[in-house]
Amino acid sequence: MHTVRFRSLLLGTLTSCFLALSGAVAAQADTVLTLVAADYGTGPADSSLKYWQTIADAFHAANPAITVKVQTVNWNDFDTKIQTMVQNRQYPDITEGDYFSNYAQEGLLFKAREVLSDPGNPMPVFTQLGSYDGAQYGIPFTTSSRALFYNKKLFAEAGIAGAPKTWDELMTDAGKIRALGHIGYGLPLGPEEAQAETLLWLLGNGGGYQAADGAWAINSAQNVETLQFMTKLVQTGDTEPNPGTKNRADLLAQFAHGQVGMLNGLTALLPIIKQAGVLTDNDWGTATIAGKAGPLEKTLGVCDFVAAFKGDGSKREAIKQFLDFAYQDKYQVAFAERYNLLPGTTSGAAAFAKVDPALVPFLSALPKAVQYPNAPAWAQIKTQIQQNIGTAIGPDPKSVLDAIQQAALKAN
Question: Fewest Cβ atoms closer than 10 Å to its Cβ: which of 23, 35, 249, 362?
């Protein structure tokens, strides 16, 4: 009797252990992916976390053995966050935001073809920007292009017939709008996205961050001249006070409330205008960005990338399954609609053009857009520009550009 009871207890114990062990093995078999994405929202109610969590939940329902943990980071902190994670060797599996080729150079990233079934669908114009040493690592996810937004209502009050085509016209028009008690031209050189505003001005004078051969040319004669003109624009009072401390988001909101005559903007400004409820569709317009001698032939095209970190290499297939799922046209369109940006894939752009024809001009500008430097040192130089370019508005812009140039050469 006792023997039978002992055997029963032993069998029950062994069965429990087996079930517990089976559960542990099953749990270990599940793959957990960590996704760290930049937050494009304007607050908790509009956080990008909701967008990504919707995809993660839908993906997990279709692939129960893979869980995607989502974390979003404020854009101002995104670069630093990823750099810190990499330095601490706490690699995320997937990032969405900026792509830096130094991570590819260090052998930390999967190639695009290793983690996406159709690596040719992401927009080809941004392939080089997401590449290192001839291989693509950054996968375009969302894009944007730039145009000059202007307040037609203020222009009419100031007696201005149309959008300026040259810098001199822009300064004259800005002065007339300032005389009405408004900001003539919004010049955001604060740390949020100073590198974009600066590049648009440099392009207007035939300059840029790099020469045609790829060498750093931050302190070129054209760039110095450009900053001198920008300084003059500020000193005459035709911009907001202290542009070096003014972020783009603040000026976009002020434009939407009818307080700014002109600024270089992107499609994300459209919902801000609508939400403010101050300007009607007839009160504002867009035009080609003014240059020193005439309108820019090419505008800035910005692309935010997805990158996949190798880790120990064991999650490649799970990452591929998730990215194939997340890059569906419906999710590309949903993101573009939510944040008034543009898709990062060819098929997504075609689908989006049918949904919102008003954005076709911005989509059409992408194939010939100028992009940020594709250099491992860009991560550091971008930070230098964001933090310091505002101080170039002053009596000696060349010394500031010289310092950034030296930092670029050193980083190289």
Answer: 23
- The CA-atom distances, in angstroms, between 183 and each of 148, 239, 272, 300 are 15, 6, 18, 24
Residues 6+ apart with CB under 8 A from 378: 100, 101, 372
Query: Is 147-299+377-411 CATH 3.40.50.720?
Result: no
- Within the chain, all domains assigned CATH 3.40.190.10 are found at 27-144+302-360, 147-299+377-411
**Under a CB-based contact definition with an 8 Å cutoff, are residues 404 and 210 in contact?**
no
How many Å is the maximal CA-CA distance in the chain? 107
The phi-psi region of residue 160 (left if phi > 0; otherwise alpha if psi is between -120 and 50; otherwise beta) is: beta
From the number of C-beta atoms within 10 Å of its C-beta (0-12, 13-18, 19+), residue 42 rates as middle
Q: What is the rounded distance in angstroms from the CA atom of residue 322 to the CA atom of residue 94?
A: 10
Answer for the pair 130, 139: CB distance below 8 angstroms, yes or no.
Answer: yes
pTM metric for this prediction: 0.73
Q: Is the dihedral of CA 252, 255, 260, 265 positive or negative?
A: positive
Please report the DSSP string for 144-181 in residue order: EE-EEEEEHHHHHHHT--S---BHHHHHHHHHHHHTTT
Please write the tens of the pLDDT for every residue from 231-262. 999 999 999 999 999 999 999 999 999 999 99
Cα(401)–Cα(306) distance, integer angstroms: 31
Amino acid code (one letter) for 12? G
287-298 pLDDT tens trace = 999 999 999 988
Ramachandran class of 59: left when φ > 0, alpha when ψ lies in -120 to 50, beta otherwise: alpha
Cite the DSSP H helix spans in 179-304: 194-203, 221-235, 248-256, 269-276
Whole-angstrom Cα distance, residue 101 to residue 372?
Answer: 12
